Amino acid sequence: MTDFRPVTLTVNGRPHTGSAESRTLLADFLRDGLGLTGTHVGCEHGVCGACTVMVDGEAVRSCLMFAVQADGAEIGTIEGLAKGGEMHPLQKLFSEHHALQCGFCTPGMLMTAMDLVHSNPDRTPQEFRDGMSAALCRCTGYEGIVNAVIEYAAMVKAEAADG
Amino acid sequence: MKPAPFVHVAPGSLAEVVALLAEHAPDARPLAGGQSLVPVMNFRLSRPSVLIDLNRVPELAYIRDDGTHLTVGAMTRQRTLENSDLVRKAAPLLHAATLNIGHLPIRSRGTIGGSLSNADPAAEDPAVVLALDCVMVLHGPSGERRVAAADFFEGVLATATGPDELLVAIEVPKAPANSGSAFVEIARRHGDFALAGVAAQVTLSGDGPVSVQLAACGVGPGPVRLSGAEAEILDHGLSEAAIRAAARIAAAEVDPDTDLHATAAYRRRLTAAMTRRALLQAVENAKAPS
Predict the structure, then answer these.
(1) What does the pLDDT look like over B147-156, one tens digit per residue?
(2) Which residues of chain A neighbour B51 with C-beta distances below 8 Å?
(3) What pTM does this model have?
(4) What is the ipTM of this complex?
């Protein structure tokens, strides 16, 4: 059974069209269909969080969504964070806090953190810690990750206060 | 792994969904948020031939104030419930339970109707609708059918929904004045399914209880109404001794299994501890100025 059909979506602000089988997962479509291999695929059952991307402004597991379901959606991936060769502030903080070692989980960590912080920068440190448990890291022990996310939230709040 | 091939259909109305279910049942599966169905499809534990995608049916996603109760469309996302002031005020137990469901990226997609229809014994939403005596609204070829939450759950991953029916809405009675609620659970990690969880809503008159609603998750083939514990509180009030007695009764009226994560005996002890904690928190919330 081959049922390829066109999928048109916006990724990091740029329109893309590709074709996907019904059963093609969004994660695989981004990687294999569009060549955006920054989104990583780990467990393929929604537990590890490596494939987390933004769909219409909210973090979701791209291994638990079919590409055809994302037709017409706005997708945000790790490739969209850095601008003009300059790392995003959250990426810089991950570097400063040594929040990655092997880096496999990092794309999902960053997308998870972006959503946690921007949907509510007033979360408590414990809430950010709990929230980041949505993505699994087997290297760092999380201290650097949590510290980077908390500092980023403070930065976002300060910028909002400055207006 | 990757799912086996299937045909994906994305109707735009409930009428189309019902017609498609009638045409393709029992080989078709409705696809709600996909946070439970897609993992089992990826592992090929489930191989539906047709997926009827509900994500483009706007009439299934809403939260409506109907006076005595909220009516929640089955495709309402958990993240929408979490962010809803109406739900937080009128159905605080549902709100509290929602915060315990998975992680934020799971709640972005996961729906209340999907969780209830999946009927995982450890899931939070089934315990909430059972505790609150919610009404489940089903739609099928012969029209609408209303089922009490107590009659909806029929065992592990099994509900009263027929193969050609769809859960379309849940009627959630509003929390009465002078009531308080709490949802507490213990999981190995934040966001994991609970080893045991308890949903509680207590309504007070003065310092005494006039209504106690308790249900547990993770400790039986489905959500368990803790009727014995409820009766104990109604008979003996909310003294520390009565709450401890109710907790002991709760542990005796659940039927947990031993599995990889915990023994049955440990889950019984957790049920007692969660019952006590949920009651104490619910009473505190009932007394707090709203």
Answers:
(1) 999 999 999 9
(2) 22
(3) 0.96
(4) 0.95
